[in-house]
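One thing: mind reviewing this one?
=====
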Amino acid sequence: MIKIEDVKKTLESIDMKKISIIFVLGIALIVLSFPTSKKSSTTKSTSSTAQTNTTDSYGKKQESKLKKALRKVEGVGKVEVMITMKASEESVVNKDSPYEESTNEKEKTIKENEETILIEEDGKKVPYVIKTEEPEVEGVIVVAQGGDNDIVKQNIVDAVSVLFHISSYKIKVLKMEDS
């Protein structure tokens, strides 16, 4: 059992300089032990940035392909395209779904537990991805030299609608200004 008198003697034998150093180190240890939100926000923003970059690159690639195709359509002329995406790229992972069924006289019990299947990749366990779904196109704007011609405009709307599986009201065709 520790006696108060022993503690007082020990504290009296330690000089103030040592007590100050111990106090400062204790405070520093407490401050350093708090988790910083900067790490988690950096990780989140990096992940979010990666998804945004993937979506942007997919959108840019689709814009380029559409622009190239529309240039070849009679009456379109010079063309600029802008595509907006509804969501980012999504990975579909494989899940194991064991199924148990037990029956007693009065009730039937069904248990379903779903677990993500993990594989080892570069020494880390990661989910097994079955497929990756591309971002969904939400809307398209086409600015074309022939955008004032109703037939050309309808051809562009039909082509974009078929290509991206979107309704015609989500496609806007505009006349390019003469420059």
User: Anything to note?
Assistant: The chain is about 45% helix and 30% strand.
